[in-house]
Amino acid sequence: MPSEIQDSPSAITSSADFKLKFDGRLKQINANTLAASLFSVTAIVHEINRTVAPETAIDVNVKAFSGGSFLVHLDLEAVKAALPLVAMITPVPVKDVVDVLVAIFDLRKFLKGEPPKAISPVDGKVQIENNNGQITIAEQVVYNIYGDNATVQQALANNFKALDEDPAVTGYEITDGGENPLIQIDREEFADLANDADFLPADSEDPRIRIISERANLGIIRPAFDARYKWDFQYRTQKITARVLDAAFQARIDSGEAFHKGDRLVVDLEISQEFDNALNGYLDKAFRVAHVIQHIPREQQPDLFNPESD
Q: Domain residues of the chain, as ranges?
């Protein structure tokens, strides 16, 4: 076993750096925009690392800001714990994490924040068609993290929502340490990429994917008055997020109808499910509200702890 692993509780096994560039005539940047973007990118990096290198921890450090611009220099360091079994594992280079990060942003840009029109396996990779009929090939690990990881999906939406709401930012880039662009995203794309759409396609020929519908009674946890974003609901005993696709219901929101935490909606709920080979069964992957049947304000609901209430 290497002595440097034995002599210290942890050891840096590899490192890599990249930069986030906020385009525009910026000598300063809104604190909320910067914080949201850094938080989102860091969350995505950690989720990637959990998949490609679960035996290591990864530190994300912000280096000194470049003067006169808004270029944020991030340094990643993979740290492997000094445990005998872990020390025997060949560490995954941190550069692989950066490569997957860029590929995830590139896939988001390709899909314009929408679900794919079609997906199919090709030579160990995944062929993805967007709603414009364009096709790209993604590595399986990129497809899995982008499609299956709710934390990554939410972080991407939050990142571009913050950018879209800051008019001073005219573009967004990820560059390598030498400031060579790895991906560039124009301001005109921010709104689409902030879309909270589910990854699974609405229709799929893949037998592993199916969509079921049911009448459901959902408790409102957090409403979303912009149609691009998802609501938080209580569904049975779990918390879910779902977009409301009902245009007539959206018109009621736009006309000023009030909705509060604790209100309930009786809805037609669509559930996207994907077959899990290990469990030999289907798992819920995404939820969509197709139609809102009834809105029940909280004050019109019975008190569960007072049987005599109406």
A: 3-193, 209-300
Q: Closest Cα partner for 190 from 127, 244, 113?
A: 113
The predicted-structure confidence for 77-88, as pLDDT tens digits, reads as follows 776 554 444 444
Task: Give 209-300's CATH code, choosing from 3.40.640.10, 2.60.120.260, 2.40.50.140, 2.40.160.120.
Answer: 2.40.50.140
- Tell me the per-residue pLDDT of 242-296, one tens digit each, with 9 for 90 and over: 889 899 999 999 999 989 899 999 999 999 888 888 888 998 888 989 999 999 9
